[in-house]
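Help! Submission page says 'invalid entity' but I think these are all valid:
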Amino acid sequence: MRLPLQVYFFAGGLRAMVHFLLQSENPHIFAPVRAIVDTGSPITILGLPDLKKMRVSQLKLKDLESRKETISYGGGQVRAKILRDNKIKIGEFECSVPIQIPVEEIKDCSQPTILGVDFLIENKLSLFFDPTKKEAYFEQS
Amino acid sequence: MENQELQLLKNFESDSKWFHENMDMLREKNFTGKFVAIKESKPIAANEDLDVVINNISKKGENPSLVFIEFVHPKGFTLLL
């Protein structure tokens, strides 16, 4: 099964992007998200702009598991919480992955949401990306 | 519900597509360095401060969670993830 992705020019180059619906009960989240597929990132992390527009307060994150290690993010080191119970819908394909949520605000941070290698492993997906043809897709193995 | 979700995602994708395909036009119209909210292929709010954009969207009766919002980087800027 193939899941088509979008290839757009963004912030200096062509990127493979995926649009999905993110759902969670605690904290309550129901939001479409555009994420950049980044095979250079081992983890999936919610961008601060996406977190802000979902209006998830730091208070609502308090019950989530804390990540032990800091993350290098947006030019700084941040601590993060882990949202494990979530549902990700890419079209009709449903899946999940632990999502790191930064709990420290970085000023002027426009860092997007990143879908990392953990997402591919967790959902047994491989990535095809041909920037020349502007074609990209996930394929389930 | 399932169809509504799919439609919502489709609309969001469509606004994302419009944003990425009209980046140069947005820069020409002085949106560089601002967060821009796109709804039905139109900018509906923009500001350097994301909180202001979110508040403006809410005042228009929209749910910010469902609206495509992205930062317009200057031409030539490269973001390393």
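Support: the input was valid. A stray whitespace character was the problem, and the output above is from the cleaned input. DSSP finds two helices and 14 strands in chain A.
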